[in-house]
Amino acid sequence: MNFLPVAIDIERESILIIGGGKVAIHKIESLEKFTHNIKIIALDVVDEIRERGFIEIVEKAYEPADLKGHLLVYAATNNHELNSQIRADALNYRCLVNVVDKPSNCDFISPAIYKKDQMTVAVSSNGENVYAAINWRNKIRELGENGELPEVKSKEESRF
Description:
There is one protein chain. By secondary structure, the chain is α/β, with parallel strands linked by helices. Helices cover 30% and strands 19% of the residues. It is built from five helices and seven strands, in the order E-H-E-H-E-E-H-E-E-E-H-H. Helix 1 links the parallel strand 1 (15-18) and strand 2 (38-42). The radius of gyration is 17 Å and the shape is globular.
């Protein structure tokens, strides 16, 4: 696998997560730093998701037409066959799919992210070792929190 690191403006995009459990929460925690335009489709949704007032929750079984109009889709169910079906269905709707815990079946993967003000650092192992990526991200976070990263100046000041 060889994923291209890309920064995508998702603020106005509709992000779909199929699944309403702990894995979905983990994805929401990363996404909510960048957008609140998140929709959950699941038969069962945990309270921690419900408590976030900005998430659209649709309690129903997944259907392929649910993919329409979504740029990014996370297949985050505990059913491996359903996750694979979501990935196959997405080809018809031209949306990018992340099948959680199966990088080989993903159009994109979610890196370990450190965000401070307007600066964002994303660390990825191309889906090979998520724990190594998290460790690198945490080291970068420590540098930032300890004031060891350069101060971020305005765009005009940074030119010189």
